[in-house]
Design goal:
This protein is an alpha+beta fold. It has helices at 44-55, 57-62, 75-84, 98-102, 141-154, and strands at 14-17, 22-24, 32-37, 65-71, 90-93, 106-111, 114-119, 122-126, 132-136. The longest helix is centred in the C-terminal third of the chain and has 14 residues, at 141-154.
């Protein structure tokens, strides 16, 4: 599994967002980006993380930053999730987990004695030049928001 580190350039990618529009990471150079990966729309931990970023969105924007969530869910699922919780940021569709693999967050997981592959909740804070300034693998939902906020405020 690829593990990215602070100081590396964030891998560029293109995906479809929750509006069915193309999204290319490098198109947003000049802004800090909190890129977070979560397993599934409308699950408790994923909702807690998304709502945390929503609740701190004014502070995020005030620090010249934006939030981008990534999961394997469909455009339709993202639209429902975004609408239900009034999320003000992009949610990207990664059904074949290409972006997740690029960032090293797709892997083996265990729950209730069952082994399967899925998204390992993680986030990456990217500076205005595209360099990683905070990397958190297997982060808890509330801690993800806290650590990401500290990273954008410190840079």
């Amino acid at each position: 599994m690829t593990r990215l580190e602070v100081g590396q350039m964030a891998p560029d990618f293109e995906a479809i967002d929750d509006q069915g529009q193309p999204f290319r990471l490098s198109d947003f150079r000049g802004k800090k980006i909190i890129l977070y990966f979560y397993p599934k729309d409308n699950t408790s931990g994923c909702t807690k993380q998304a709502v945390g970023f929503r609740d701190h969105y004014d502070a995020i924007v005030a620090n010249n930053a934006m939030v981008v969530g990534v999961s394997p869910d469909s455009v339709e699922s993202h639209v429902k999730f975004k609408t239900k919780y009034d999320l003000p940021f992009h949610l990207l569709v990664d059904p074949d987990h290409t972006i997740a693999e690029l960032y090293g967050v797709w892997g083996e997981k265990k729950m209730y004695g069952r082994t399967y592959y899925g998204i390992k909740r993680s986030h990456f804070v990217i500076d205005e030049e595209g360099r990683l300034i905070d990397v958190r693998y297997n982060v808890r939902p509330a801690k993800s928001v806290e650590y990401a906020l500290k990273a954008i405020q410190a840079s």
